Amino acid sequence: MAKEEAWKPARTDKSERLFQLTCVLLYSERGLTKRELFHAVDAYRSDLAASNEDDFALNKKFERDKAELRDMGIQVTNPDPRSDPDEMRYTIASETFTWPEEIKFDSKQLQLLNLAAQVWAQASLSSDANRGLVRLRGLGIEPAASDLFGFAPRLRTHEPSFLPLSQAIEEHIEVSFDYRKADGELSKRLVQPWLLRSIDGQWLLVCWDKQQKAVRNFLLKRIVSKVIFRTEQVNEKETTLVTFEPPSEAAIQAAIADLERHTSSQLATIRVKRDSQAWFHFHLDDQHGDTADVTLAYMDLDLLAEELSEYALDVKVIAPAELARVIRSRFEAVANSHA
After folding, report:
1. What is the tens place of the pLDDT at every residue in 191-245?
2. Domain extents in the chain
3. Which of 24, 66, 61 is nearest to 46 (CA)?
4. What three-state secondary structure class fits 174?
5. What pLDDT digit, counting tens, does each position of 80-101 carry?
6. Integer Cα distance of 264 and 227 in angstroms
């Protein structure tokens, strides 16, 4: 009989770790010390058990996590910075989850917010996060006066076309925009937007192109104008938005399947140097070894080369060779322009 392998916990995803950290901090009214946090959050507990005497790496991870939460708008603060480091308590700033006074809602908006709050209150806490709260109760830590509520994750993108396209998809509005191809060719596109997808950080729009009369994918980074909602004249004084019938589920699934077939054939492999800026950009902080290989799907080789150029000293392109050539040519062009 084969020897049974020892059970090992699954690697904790960074988003789950940040979620647990936020939950346990919201739970406590007085705040939590590092010791309490490290025992409540699964990923920290695992690291604490694995480290013999030196917890420098664990403290470094905690500092990075605080910075990540700060970038999301969640401020982890220390009410008494003069206290002993071992007794220092961390809390989430009370105003983090408070609506600004100047924001007002009408009755319909309040109904929608209330419905969303009810859904998240029932569904947002994962089993791992719940275990963290149980551990805090076991340590004798009392909960805050208000109930711990669920909170929704946030999609992060810097593309200005993301929000108007999201609205157009939701309301089935035809849109137009200027689009620049990799070779620099500029054209105006008239589309019926279906959905937004992220391919390893490259956001794209899946839509029906009215001019080409076919399903097309457009990278948001190559949209170089405002997204315009199409309108038509009703009479001399009025216009109305041009809407379209939403696509069938079969049409959407076919478009997604076609996109996945395309991206599965466009893969790049890079080798990332440990503890570099690229190492943390690609969320490799829990990996072991001096380097780690990362495989990325991509829609646009030039855009991927542009992204990787920011980490030129931290990464080495393994494949495809064309990607390495494009990155090298970009730096040669910069060097020649300054010669």
Report:
1. 999 998 888 778 899 999 999 999 999 999 999 999 999 999 888 888 999 999 9
2. 14-138, 162-262, 267-337
3. 61
4. coil
5. 666 676 778 888 876 666 666 6
6. 29
